[in-house]
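I have been asked to look over a protein record a colleague put together. Alongside the sequence sits a line of tokens, each denoting a local backbone shape. Please read both lines and tell me whether the tokens look consistent with the sequence. I do not need a full report, just your reasoning and any doubts. I have pasted the whole thing underneath without changing anything.
>
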Amino acid sequence: MMDAIRKRRSIRKYKSGKIDEKDIIEILENAILAPSAGNLQSWEFVLVKTMEQKKKLADAAFGQDFILDADFVVVVCADQKRSSMVYGERGYELYSIQDTAAAIENILLTVTEKGFGACWVGAFDESMVRDIINCPAHVKPVAVIPVGIPDEKPNMPERIPLRRVLHWERF
């Protein structure tokens, strides 16, 4: 998995081709292995494969049309109610989002390890995505993740050096 961490890139160009259902299931099975606050696993996943739904999601994502070329899209959502039942407001506002972020990273790393490509899309109209996926009121869409066969190999973006962001004991 260390190799996947270093190889992972945001892929926005996809070749035509289908990803096997067993690979899709493995990607999502690895997502649910992520850590979560109190092991509440406050994530929900909506798998989108039809062009009609992908078009709606691309529109909701402010015209990010590369979503259309992905083989499938995973909309990752946070069940804020599930987390708040144990942790109150902090669970609702923070822990449920942290849980989904950990699951999202597992998706991205598994996709990379399998030789596929994905992009974490966070820029979208939340109310539109809610309508598209028929999202319950207590569930918050957090990310739209198109997955496909990559048709680009971007270089590693520049990183802020560790020495500039690491603080020992306090700022």
User: Anything to note?
Assistant: The domain at 2-165 is CATH 3.40.109.10 (NADH Oxidase). The beta strands are 14-15, 43-48, 72-79, 117-118, 139-150. The chain has a mean pLDDT of 97. The helical segments are 2-7, 21-31, 51-60, 66-69, 80-113, 126-133, 162-165.
